[in-house]
Amino acid sequence: MASLWSTVLLWGAAYAIWRSYKIFTALKTFKQVPKLYCVVDPLSILGGFVVPRGWWNPGSYITWGKTDALYARRNSETIALIPIFVGDAMLLSSSPEASKDILNEPAVWLKPKRIMTLDLMGENVVTCNPPTWRKHRKIAAPAFDNQTFANVWEVVIRAYYQMIATSDWKSEGQVFFTSFNGVTTRLALLVIAACGFNIQIDWEKDKAATTNLIDETVVTVSSHLLERAFVPRWLFAVLPALKPIGKAYERFEKFLHDEIVAKKIELARDIKLDGAVSNTNKNVFGRFVAASEREAGQSLDTSQIAGNLFIFLFAGHETTAHSLVVTLAFLASYPEEQERILNHIHSVIGDSEPVYEHYSALVPVLHCFYEAIRLYPPGWLTMREPATDEALQAPHLTATGEDLVVPKGTVIVLDTIGACRNPRHFPNPDAFVPTRWAVSEDPAAPLPPSMDTFLAFSSGPRTCLGKKFASVEAVCFLTLLLRDWKVELKLEEGETVDDWHKRILYPKLEMTLITGDVPLLFTRRVKE
Ligand code: HEM
């Protein structure tokens, strides 16, 4: 027994000396920036799930409502997080300029290994680094073009009319949803399934067994990514609660592989017939496989194509759904903004149905979406690490004003919440002001924020591939919904709009940022 104790003590002492050395080195390395001590690396599984949030865990500092004070109080837009017991020191920055410089050089500032957990069905454009990333991006980018966006518009219109034909919306003039999140989640799923994979799912669950199975599979796969990414695979075969998730993933992967093989055969047949690889598919899936086949010698294999298609499902579903529900929550909170947008919608579409050609004229609707994403960015952080020691320079980046030297392999967390509420770039940062995105006719008025330093869709060569996909979806849905329905909050007795926001919109920071259930009241507008 005594020898067990002495072994434990010996190992404990060795660990303590090693940790002290690591902490000492980190303090020396990051001398230009303020420090924040934490129990464990806040972005590790331990930091995220085991150590509860609180002052003892700086996970809570990267959380809601704290970031402005975090940086302002320390007079620095970068902070070093120093874990005492487990993990490596990392930097946290809300500097839009430094983020822009980092994101502009994807071959220098790499995505860290921990992001690779999203390689669930194969290597893909989101997770890999240059030079492999260039190959994925070159093939994926053409799949997101005007033909795809026009298809997104058509699919949203179809989904909207299916939605308002359901019993929920048929009641006398007013509809109250205790959680509108379910509605936007269904919309985003239908759109990504149809435009991404050519899977046509109806708004209401189909009675036919085959359609229902596809619907269930897509819903299960897209809503259990966190478990699939972090829970060991063998547990999906053992634990009853995880078995249906494991099965859905297997089904979906098989479905993707079968479809890819079928598409490749179809394309090969087309080449034989007219010598060209078809590019007439409206959905991302068909365009993606065709783009890959055109890259003779550089094409992606079946698992890489499946990996990319799967990641589009993840990237395009929850993000868009939550952004839409938050936009509606803000428009319900600011009736005068809603009225302004409604007048604009009428001025653009008149009495006709909105068509994709209206999209660019509906830019004030898009600005509401941008402003909601600025305040509640679904991609709430971005991580990078330099391939070699790198120096960064930006206003207020460090407390001393010196350059920030980031040693090779150090993770820098680009704090999107902090950057999107940075008062130097967004005056009155916590307020919902969609007009800040518009170019004013008054030459003396400030310019709208630059897209290069707006991090909600990231920026630079790796900017979100689905930015316009999501924007078209949002503008079309908001245009239809606001044209036909007035959206309002239902405040509790004595509650202010601010109180409602704190109660309802307080977000959870998981793989993406999501709010609590958003209750909204819709009143049918009377046609004049
Ligand atoms: C409101 C909706 C969306 C938001 C806020 C959003 C945000 C982001 C952000 C912040 C990134 C950068 C991630 C990083 O570098 O770590 C990103 C990348 C990406 N997004 Fe989106 N996204 C949205 C919708 C979509 C949609 C609809 C799709 C596809 C259908 C999509 C596909 C992608 C892809 C493929 C990348 C990786 C690009 C690359 O690394 O080259 N996103 N998105």
From TrEMBL:
InterPro entries given in the database record: Cyt_P450, Cyt_P450_CS, Cyt_P450_E_grp-I, Cyt_P450_sf, Cytochrome_P450_monoxygenase
Annotated binding of heme, by residue: 464
Gene3D superfamilies listed in its UniProt record: Cytochrome P450
Keyword RNA-binding: no
Keyword Heme: yes
Listed transmembrane segments: none
Protein name, per record: Cytochrome P450-dit2
